[in-house]
Design a protein that fits this description.
Order of helices and strands: EHEHEHEHEHEHEHHEHEEEEEEEEEHEE
Helix content: 25-40%
Structural class: alpha/beta
Bound molecules: pyridoxal-5'-phosphate
CATH topology of the largest domain: TIM Barrel
Number of helices: 10
Number of domains: 2
Radius of gyration: 22 Å
Shape: elongated
CATH superfamily of the largest domain: Alanine racemase
C-alpha cells in the first residue's frame, strides 16, 4: 500500500527519521545521570510509549489523568502526571489508579496535598508527589523556596503520600532560537534549583527527583548534571517550530494533504486547523517555498508556492506533505498515524489517547 491510496488529510510518520530520533535521544543521554521520562502528549500512542520504555525510559510523563489511565491500561507501570489536578472526582480516580501503577502527581499548594492524602487514604494506596517549583514560565508552581520546603514537609508528613522531589519546567526557554540564550536561562534556573535543593536537604526532606526539561533543552540538561529526569516529548516527531533550533532530531511527522484548488499564485490544500495544529505557527510544506499561508478549518491557502523541483506541478489532486507547526496539537487531531518508508505505508498506529484532555 502506498500513501497515494490514503484519504487525506492523513498523519504520516517517516520510519527512518523516527528511528534516528529515538537513537539520537539515547545517544544524548548515554553516560549521563539524566533519565528519560518522555512526555506522552507528543504522540498519545500507547504503542510508541512502549517503544520509549524499550529505549530505556524510566516511565512516562503525561499531562492529564485520562492520558495516565490510557498509559496504565496499556501496561505502563510508572507514570507522572506533570500537572495539577484539582477536581475531587479526578483526585479520587487518580488515587485508585495508584493501586495499579507507580503514580506521581504534582502539588503547588497545601489544599491539593491534603486532597491527595485524603483520597489515597480512602483508596488504600500510596501516591508519589513532586512539589512544582515555578522558574519563570508563569504557569503553575510555588515561587517562594521557603513555601516549597513547607509543602515538601507537609507531603512528607502524610501517611499515604511520598515526597520524591521537585518538578521545575521552563517551557518558556524550550523554543528560544539561540542556543546561547537557552544555555543562559538554563544556567540561571539551575542556580535557583540548587538553592532550593540545599534548603530541602537541610530541612530533612531531600529531593531524590528533579524532573523537567524539553526537546529544546535536552542537550543542555544532559550536560548540566542537575535534573534526574528529562520530560522531552517532541524529539520523536519534531515540528516546524523546533526545526530551526539546530537540535539533533529530524522532522519525522507530516500531514499529507491534497491540492483541491490551484490558480496563479494560490494553491489550496484539504488540510487546515482541524488536522494540523497551528498554535505554535503555520505548517511548512515540504519541497517548496511559500510566500505566506492562511489557515482555515479545512484548508491551508498556500500563497506564492513554488516547488523546488521545477518539474513538479501543484495541480488539483497533487499530494503535499506539511510539517506541522506543532506536533503535539496535531497528533490530538488524528485517530491514527501511518508509519511510512518514503511512499510505502508499513504500519498503522492508533492514537489511543486522542482527545484525552480531562
Ligand atoms: C511539563 C512539560 N514537560 C515537558 C514538556 C515537553 O516539551 P517538548 O515537547 O517541547 O519536548 C512539556 C511541553 O509542553 C511540558 O508542558
Amino acid at each position: 500500500m502506498t500513501i497515494h491510496t490514503l484519504p487525506t488529510p492523513a498523519l504520516l510518520l517517516e520510519l527512518s527519521v523516527f528511528q534516528a530520533n529515538r537513537k539520537a535521544m539515547s545517544d544524548l543521554l548515554k553516560g549521563t545521570s539524566l533519565a528519560l521520562r518522555p512526555h506522552y502528549k507528543s504522540h498519545k500512542c500507547a504503542a510508541i510509549a512502549h517503544m520509549q520504555m524499550a529505549d530505556g525510559a524510566v516511565g512516562m510523563t503525561c499531562a492529564k489523568l485520562d492520558e495516565a489511565l490510557d498509559l496504565a491500561d496499556s501496561g505502563i507501570e510508572d507514570i507522572l502526571i506533570a500537572n495539577q489536578i484539582a477536581d475531587p472526582a479526578k483526585i479520587r480516580r487518580g488515587a485508585s489508579l495508584a493501586g495499579d501503577c507507580r503514580l506521581t502527581v504534582l502539588a503547588d499548594c497545601a489544599e491539593n496535598v491534603d486532597a491527595w492524602e485524603k483520597a489515597a487514604a480512602e483508596a488504600g494506596t500510596v501516591v508519589h508527589c513532586l512539589v512544582e517549583y515555578e522558574i519563570g514560565m508563569q504557569r503553575c508552581g510555588v515561587t517562594d523556596p521557603a513555601e516549597a520546603v513547607a509543602l515538601a514537609k507537609r507531603i512528607a508528613g502524610c501517611s499515604h503520600l511520598r515526597f520524591d522531589g521537585i518538578q521545575a519546567y521552563a517551557g518558556h526557554v524550550s523554543h528560544m532560537e539561540s542556543a546561547e540564550e537557552r544555555r543562559r536561562y538554563t544556567k540561571e534556573n539551575g542556580a535557583k534549583i540548587r538553592t532550593l535543593l540545599a534548603l530541602l536537604a537541610s530541612a530533612g526532606v531531600p529531593a531524590k527527583t528533579v524532573s523537567g526539561g524539553s526537546t529544546g533543552t535536552a542537550a543542555i540538561k544532559a550536560m548540566e548534571g542537575l535534573y534526574t529526569e528529562l520530560q522531552a516529548g517532541s524529539y520523536l516527531f519534531m515540528d516546524a517550530t523546533y526545526r530551526n533550533l539546530g537540535l539533533p532530531f529530524g522532522n519525522a511527522l507530516t500531514v499529507l494533504s491534497t491540492v483541491v484548488s490551484a490558480r496563479e499564485g494560490l494553491t489550496v490544500v484539504d488540510a487546515g486547523v482541524k488536522s494540523c495544529g497551528v498554535d505554535q505557527g503555520m505548517p511548512d510544506p515540504v519541497g517548496m517555498d511559500v510566500d505566506h499561508i492562511v489557515a482555515s478549518e479545512e484548508h491551508f491557502q498556500l500563497h506564492g508556492a513554488v516547488p523546488h523541483d521545477p518539474n513538479r506541478k501543484l495541480s488539483v489532486g497533487t499530494g503535499v506533505r506539511l510539517i506541522p507547526g506543532h506536533c503535539c496539537s496535531t497528533v490530538n487531531l488524528h485517530d491514527r498515524i501511518y508509519v511510512v518508508d518514503g511512499e510505502k505505508v508499513v504500519d498503522r498506529l492508533q492514537i489511543t489517547a486522542r482527545g484525552a484532555c480531562r
